[in-house]
Amino acid sequence: MAAKFLAKDKLISWLAELSESNRTLVPHREGQAVVFREFDGDTVPELERRPTVPPKGAVFPQCEPLMTFKYEKNPEDPGKVSLNVKERKDETPTVVFGARGCDAAGFNCFDRVYVTDKVTDQNYLARRKNTLFVTEVCAKPATTCFCNWVGGGPADTAGADVQLTPLVNGWLVEGVTERGEALMDSLYLTDGADRETEAQEVKKAAEALMGEACDLSGAPEKLLALFDDKDFWEAVSDKCLSCGACTYICPTCYCFNVTDENCGLQGVRLRTWDNCMSYQFTAEASGHNPRPAKANRFKNRIGHKFGYYPSLHGGNIACVGCGRCIKSCPVSMDVREVVRNVIAAPVAQGDK
Ligand code: SF4
Ligand code: SF4
């Protein structure tokens, strides 16, 4: 489909149209933060500033009921109890509007884990199949952005269904997938052919603003070689508070916990985001904890994203370079600096 143009004064009308048949989430300013909220006609979209949090919850909610259950006694035979289970799946058609390319690409990391030949997470898949992403080119990447280190870029379309490029008085609207092109079938969008050159300039200028990329190709082997280097991991994690902000705000962190909440003979099974930087994450019922110190947990976080995950998934790194963990860390830990240190660290003879 040919590119179209969305004039600034037609943005709200297009969003209203999209929200007639979709739950439409838009970035919205709340205090100092920009968060995704459902568009309700009055929601003012914030497309200038990069969202403070990714739209991870659109496909993988922070807390979701997986099923309800109920034990039922047979009054004729009280020793006999049956269990009724009702699974809950959310298949609401959803459009995430105005996310950045890196945020949409984050779900590609989820897919390799949750939708495989061996196992499929049906709750995840139901939302994933029903969610489309209208992303916006990062015309002014932040100083903390490093998507170009991990195979992305400010105009990357991996994970997008439609891409918007900000122009004077509006956006160029380009379809990336067939389902995305269907969203562009709107009277509020006009022919965009005469704005395509301008959009190319915006994309080129954004790419030129990115710093030089660090070569991460040797990171998995280097992380393996440093696995037993306690001094290295203690030094790089020294400042960390184990608060977990970096995991909750990360568009590629997919760990969760499952709990049952009972009330008498019935209850609900909940899935909730979990955080590998917390002591409790690996604490075992016996009292043993295989990652007792923050250095162990920090090594796991970095090792997983830049070593174990790429080793298991064709070299794909489990980080999209959004830089949010750098911005949100209360003690200014910088994942780029840590990875650079990993690559530059001397490996002692005999270390594996
Ligand atoms: S946000 Fe910073 S202090 Fe908190 S767990 Fe992550 S690295 Fe540690
Ligand atoms: S590790 Fe940090 S930079 Fe990478 S995707 Fe997660 S929050 Fe973004």
Automatic annotation (TrEMBL):
Coiled coil: none annotated. Residues 231-261, 308-341 form the 4Fe-4S ferredoxin-type domain. Transmembrane segments: none annotated. GO terms for molecular function: iron-sulfur cluster binding; metal ion binding. Keywords: Iron, Iron-sulfur, Metal-binding. InterPro entries: 4Fe4S_Fe-S-bd, 4Fe4S_Fe_S_CS. It comes from the Bacteria. SUPFAM superfamilies: alpha-helical ferredoxin. This is Anaerobic sulfite reductase subunit A. It comes from Pseudodesulfovibrio hydrargyri.
